[in-house]
Fold:
Amino acid sequence: MIKSELVHKLAENDQHLSRHDFEKIVDSILHAIRDGLARGDRVELRGFGIFTLRKHAARIGCNPRTKAPVSVSEKLVPTFKAAKEMHQRLNPALLRRQHRTAPMASNADVVRYVDA
Structure:
């Protein structure tokens, strides 16, 4: 559902490519990410983020219904880390706070302790 909304929005903004063309483009990008992760690669989209795999070790879990112990096998889980540009775009207030700098201490404010 989200993919079709994205394709529709892209097609509205561009007069040169059809909705079908945008669907092919989005599918190609998603397939490239999926295939890269399947090979065990790190997939980086500059300015957007990084897709990687994280390994979860085998463990003994608990069946929530019966409370019986259950063996959970080792598995790989896809993870995403947003790029710095994406993080700043999503958190503009945080960016403004980081640009404020504390006043620099003058030499008169610096106290030095010397062991005697």
Remarks:
- The two ends are 73 Å apart (CA to CA).
